[in-house]
User: Fold Pyrroline-5-carboxylate reductase from Allacma fusca.
Amino acid sequence: MYLITCAYWLNAYVFEAPEADIWLGLGQIKSLFDSRWVVSNNQKFTKMNPNSVAEPKQILTNGERFGVVGGGNMTKALVFPLIEKGLLSPEQIVVSATTQATLASWRELGCATTTDNKLVTSTSDIVLWGVKPQMLSKAIPQSWNLTEERYSKCSSLHISVLAGITLETFKQRLQDKLEVLPRAPYKLRCIRTMPNIGASVGSGCVVFTPEPEVIDEDRQFMHDFFGPTGLYFEVPEYQMNAYSGLMGCGIGFMFPVIEGLSDGAVKMGIPRAASLKLAAQVMKGAGELLLAENRHPGELKDRVCSPGGSTICGVAALEENGVRNAFIKAVEASTKRGEELGQLK
Ligand SMILES: NC(=O)c1ccc[n+]([C@@H]2O[C@H](COP(=O)([O-])OP(=O)(O)OC[C@H]3O[C@@H](n4cnc5c(N)ncnc54)[C@H](OP(=O)(O)O)[C@@H]3O)[C@@H](O)[C@H]2O)c1
Assistant:
């Protein structure tokens, strides 16, 4: 029996596997996590000293109200970790969904919940929209008005995570249903984002496109809110569906890869539990290595392919089965579906 230790940061998975010959050194892996990556606005990857990156800090310290319309998987992935880390106070949050089953987990964290979206839109300074794209029109309250307090602030920020829905469509649909009294020049400001569910473990990606009307405070909020979720950066809106295909959907393409790697291991006699854990760790290691060293994947692949060795035989088998073409087609298909979703009324 061999002891396999897969170490991530200071936590270690330790389990026994028969006839395994894989060893990962804790020190080697930890060194990969000693640097942090951020992506600057010009989209160049920049390696930063961890100390020079803004530390996660308390969000919305002036008592602002934060609303979520559509408290499903994606908005939970973004907001729950912030509440659990104490960065966002549940007392400031109101969430809507159609069922109590979905709302229960928000309530357990201390958030107010409702099935009436008007309560969210009318009382929140910042609203995160997380319904399915085809549900947007239905989700916007037939008419929504504002509390006296919000009239006095004259503005609110609306953040969409909806695949395919353009900023123009999003804002238009919100404004069409907004009742504005003549006495207040009320303004909506909108930001379109594309996150992925890796946010729930702090390894997410978020891209965003703000409207020109967005103010410095909104950008600061984006930084504080999305910063702790992983990589985030601004992109031109016309590329948003392609980013959605790459990483909003792309994280979903990784699970069949992990499962396939595990299936191969099971076929070769490794138990399922061990093979799944190791397959996931292998994927994580590859991603972290590429980010830490900022190298082309071909270069890293060459590093592990010795002439006449076993890895190059596996790589050749992948190529015979069109692995790269499969991913190109997957990103293309998801991008096109995002474009279609944006056309739905
Ligand atoms: N999941 C991802 O990986 C991912 C990644 C990037 C972007 N997105 C975007 O995130 C959005 C949500 O996706 P999801 O995967 O989180 O879906 P989801 O889990 O189904 O969440 C959607 C939520 O919207 C609620 N809802 C439906 N109709 C509503 C209405 N009229 N008013 C208020 N709430 C309503 C649902 O409530 P009930 O549960 O009570 O029915 C549900 O909780 C989509 O627009 C998607 O494009 C998702």
Notes: Residues 69-74, 96-99, 102, 117, 130-133, 135, 138-139, 161-163, 194-197, 248 surround NAP (CB under 6 Å). The radius of gyration is 23 Å. Residues 61 and 110 are 17 Å apart (CA to CA).
